[in-house]
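Hello again,

I reread your note about wanting to compare the complex against the isolated chains. To keep things tidy I'm splitting this into two emails, and this first one only covers the full assembly. Below are the input lines as submitted, including protein chains and any nucleic acid or small-molecule components. They are followed by the predicted structure of everything together. The single-chain runs will come separately.
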Amino acid sequence: AQKVTQAQTEISVVEKEDVTLDCVYETRDTTYYLFWYKQPPSGELVFLIRRNSFDEQNEISGRYSWNFQKSTSSFNFTITASQVVDSAVYFCALIKTSGTYKYIFGTGTRLKVLA
Amino acid sequence: DSGVTQTPKHLITATGQRVTLRCSPRSGDLSVYWYQQSLDQGLQFLIQYYNGEERAKGNILERFSAQQFPDLHSELNLSSLELGDSALYFCASSLGGPEQFFGPGTRLTVL
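Full-complex prediction:
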């Protein structure tokens, strides 16, 4: 069975602080994709990153960075120097690379960045 | 803008009623997925269509049904609505690979 766990239900930080959102996944598949999505108050799902299970390189995109560690089945997301506009719910998702490509989403982490 | 459109944006209806949610995928995408986001169940997969054929089912209630038309747009039909069906319904499309492009969602409120 596949499962994604985001243990942090809600995190509050003060603007300019760094914050890490945790994501732990379970899968028996050897090849899979991991995703992060942002859901701002307006409700849409905004794609942030896709990572293939064979690519364990960390990635940085501006203030965002991702740490993928297969050994611990984790795919954590860090926002550096957080801003109020980062306030949103963030979802981690898993998808296997064969068969039906249905997303398995975590329960999400609500991030509140206070001015 | 993902290129996926969903109508209506908001829908308010009463218990026992039936509604239809519409999704137009990105140009060229053959797969359409429906997801439900509710407070108690989170974001969960409902059903997938590929080029008009049902491909996979998730946690979709028997009161719900979907179809994909020859022009590839899809409709999700929800009947005998209950208060617990209030949720945000997302449609996503893909060409066939793992990455899906999500529409803006339809917010359904059942009173």
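For quick reference: The CA atoms of residues 66 and 105 of chain B lie 16 Å apart.

B.
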